[in-house]
TrEMBL record:
Residues 155-258 form the Late embryogenesis abundant protein LEA-2 subgroup domain. GO terms for biological process: defense response to other organism. The keyword Transmembrane helix applies. The chain crosses the membrane at residues 88-116. Residues 1-50 are annotated as: Disordered. It is found in: Membrane. This is Late embryogenesis abundant protein LEA-2 subgroup domain-containing protein. It holds the Pfam family LEA_2. Signal peptide: none annotated. It is a single-pass membrane protein.
């Protein structure tokens, strides 16, 4: 509401003073007369003259646009609302579809696990035969490096314990044997299909050509062979496809790392210990 405040210093209104013609003619200074409303209305009294201060609330100043800008303000607010609604709808639909897909994947994975009950296959090294690595004390005593071309025949045992899953071993696999981070030889796993509840034993021939052994590696290898404990690392990287019923999966890479200790690098090497770790690369 607007408040009307009469100024404190304004004098109360004075009635007009009548002026006669004689006094007016005798005085040389002009006289100021106060004009009154020609037809005052009793319902709407005329306020006395003075200075008025009108207070307007702040919320009306900042929130309510002036009349000349009201139509423009409404048009702009309508445009902003119409622009926001499609974006909000698209975002809501996207989030809803994403949540539905995640729920569907989770339910499918749970059903697959309960029905198929997949288990990881087991791998182990049954035998190793080595040739081309006959180190002598005279060769090891020299301070120069040594170039060798070793050959390993490795027998691997693969166990598929699943009841409803078959495994296709695809080409382009790799098998390597290391000693002290030096690759001694390499080869591949043969391609074959392993049905469910099956144990397959296969042999793979690994060859090395022009492998350089530094004097440090050469002396360490000779010392380990003299002690009868030569630690080796066998790595297998095999692309496979899983078969469930009549459905095949995409290509999955099987990763097997086996820590093996043999008594020597000979054709009749005996395995003292073996520890294989299994992993997969889904994509």
């Amino acid at each position: 509401m607007a408040d009307r405040i009469h100024p404190r210093d304004s004098p109360p209104p004075q009635p007009p003073v009548p002026v006669n013609d004689e006094t007016a003619s005798e005085s040389s200074e002009p006289m100021l007369t106060l004009a009154t409303h020609p037809n005052p209305s009793p319902d709407k009294p005329v306020p006395p003259p003075g200075t008025y201060v009108i207070h307007i609330p702040k919320d009306q100043v900042y929130r309510v646009p002036p009349p000349e800008n009201a139509n423009r303000y409404q048009a702009l607010t309508r445009k902003s609302k119409t622009r926001r609604r499609p974006c909000c709808c698209c975002l809501c639909w996207s989030l809803g579809i994403l949540a539905f897909l995640l729920a569907l994947i989770a339910v499918s994975a749970a059903i697959f696990y309960l029905v198929v009950k997949p288990r990881a296959p087991n791998y182990s090294v049954d035998a190793i035969s080595v040739s081309g690595l006959n180190l002598t004390a005279a060769a090891a005593a020299s301070s120069t490096s040594l170039t060798v071309s070793p050959e390993f025949d490795v027998t691997v045992r693969a166990d598929n314990p699943n009841d409803k899953i078959g495994i296709y071993y695809e080409p382009k696999s790799s098998v390597e044997i290391y000693y002290d981070d030096v690759s001694l030889c390499n080869g591949a796993v043969p391609s074959f299909y392993q049905p469910s509840n099956n144990v397959t034993v296969f042999e793979t021939a690994l060859k090395g050509n022009g492998v350089v052994l530094t004097s440090t590696v050469k002396n360490s290898l000779l010392q380990a062979q003299t002690q009868g404990k030569v630690p080796l690392l066998l790595t297998v990287r095999a692309p496979v496809k899983i078969k469930v019923g009549s459905v095949k999966s995409w290509t999955i890479t099987v990763k097997v790392d086996c820590d093996i200790t043999v008594d020597g690098l000979t054709a009749n090497a005996k395995i003292f210990s073996k520890d294989c770790h299994y992993g997969v690369k889904i994509w």
